């Protein structure tokens, strides 16, 4: 690629994440913002192929795009600019929603590779915006960055007064085989699993949604202004994204799955009662084989 060095000089100071591949999708350049968003350094990416389990793009259903539906492949083969929303695999294991634009590189009339520009498309979550204040009030779990359980009793009513008390969905999420992870690899590994699952969940939700570390490996998600269909779509997406991710710990990639119970809060029902029902639904999901969503 004749212009590679020129591209590097130009893109080194760009505010967008950019990487360049040849026709075989070998990564020739990976700029600093790409490293910032993905967690992977230039040394960990340049010289490798983009399908070498690095960014490992998937769609919202968890379908791996590296071998079917890759924006770069489409851009190179068809000589067109493509735009997609995908979920990249951060080095720490969680999924990040990004907008991807793939642009073919033409030299002497032939496509010789492509440039991929990606930007973090994650919605700013209300919880993230409040973290600085809430840390002082001990509402944030220091391990996962999620709300602690007492947020449900001390702050949730005020949150609902602001955003609405109707059309609320509850997801009760439990990490499958978590005790086995702790017993086999130790509590440090269990902490890595918890943080990774928590971030994958947090990064996919709307501004007004709430995520709580309910206890141990249990996470409660409160979805506001949702229908049953919307709620199940979110639950299935989270289940798929977590299952299609892996966690790097001491150079050993490990798979993690979750079981999810889902329910809608009934009229005049207390949130705590709906959480109990979602918990029951989660146990049904466990009994039915894990790594799935159960509605109750």
Describe what is shown at a glance.
With 296 residues, this protein is an alpha+beta fold. The protein contains eleven helices and 13 strands.
Give the helix/strand layout:
Layout: H1 4-11, E1 17-22, E2 27-30, H2 32-38, H3 42-45, H4 71-78, E3 82-89, E4 95-107, E5 110-120, H5 126-136, E6 147-148, H6 151-154, H7 156-163, E7 168-175, H8 178-185, H9 187-202, E8 210-215, E9 218-224, H10 228-243, E10 246-249, E11 252-255, E12 258-264, H11 271-287, E13 293-295
Parallel strand pairs: 6-8, 12-13
Antiparallel strand pairs: 1-2, 1-5, 3-4, 4-5, 7-9, 7-12, 8-9, 10-11
Helix pairs in contact: 8-9
Structure, described:
The protein folds into two domains: 4-120, 2-Layer Sandwich (Beta-Lactamase); 126-295, 2-Layer Sandwich (Alpha-Beta Plaits), CATH 3.30.70. Strands 6-8-9-7-12-13 form a six-stranded mixed beta sheet. The protein has a five-stranded antiparallel beta sheet with strand order 2-1-5-4-3, sandwiched between helices. It has eleven helices and 13 strands. The longest helix has 17 residues, at 271-287. It is elongated and about 70 Å long. Helix 8 runs antiparallel to helix 9. It has helices at 4-11, 32-38, 42-45, 71-78, 126-136, 151-154, 156-163, 178-185, 187-202, 228-243, 271-287, and strands at 17-22, 27-30, 82-89, 95-107, 110-120, 147-148, 168-175, 210-215, 218-224, 246-249, 252-255, 258-264, 293-295. By secondary structure, it is an alpha+beta fold. The model has no long low-confidence stretch (mean pLDDT 88). Helix 11 links the parallel strand 12 and strand 13 (293-295). It is 36% helix and 28% strand.
């Amino acid at each position: 690629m004749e212009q590679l060095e020129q591209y590097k000089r130009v893109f080194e100071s760009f505010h967008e994440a950019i990487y360049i591949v040849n026709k075989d999708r070998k990564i020739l350049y990976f700029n600093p913002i790409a490293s910032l968003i993905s967690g992977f350094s230039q040394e960990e990416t340049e010289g490798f192929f983009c399908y070498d389990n690095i960014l490992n793009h998937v769609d919202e259903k968890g379908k791996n795009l590296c071998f079917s539906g890759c924006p770069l492949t489409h851009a190179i083969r068809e000589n067109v600019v493509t735009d997609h929303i995908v979920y990249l695999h951060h080095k720490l294991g969680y999924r990040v929603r990004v907008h991807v634009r793939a642009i073919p590189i033409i030299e002497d009339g032939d496509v010789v590779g492509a440039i991929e520009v990606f930007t973090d498309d994650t919605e700013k979550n209300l919880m993230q915006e409040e973290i600085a204040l809430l840390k002082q009030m001990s509402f944030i779990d220091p391990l996962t960055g999620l709300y602690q359980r007492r947020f449900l009793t001390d702050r949730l009513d005020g949150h609902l007064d602001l955003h609405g008390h109707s059309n609320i969905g509850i997801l009760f999420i439990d990490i499958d085989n978590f005790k086995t992870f702790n017993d086999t690899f130790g509590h440090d590994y269990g902490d890595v699993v918890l943080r990774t699952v928590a971030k994958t969940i947090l990064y996919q939700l709307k501004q007004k949604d709430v995520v709580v570390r309910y206890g141990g490996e249990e996470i409660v998600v409160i979805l506001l202004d949702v229908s049953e269909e919307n709620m199940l779509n979110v639950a299935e997406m989270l289940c798929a994204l977590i299952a299609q991710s892996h966690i790097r710990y001491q150079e050993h990639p490990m798979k993690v799955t979750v079981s999810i119970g889902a329910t809608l809060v009934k009229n005049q029902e207390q949130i705590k009662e709906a959480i109990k029902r979602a918990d029951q639904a989660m146990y049904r999901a466990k009994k039915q084989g894990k790594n799935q969503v159960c509605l109750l």
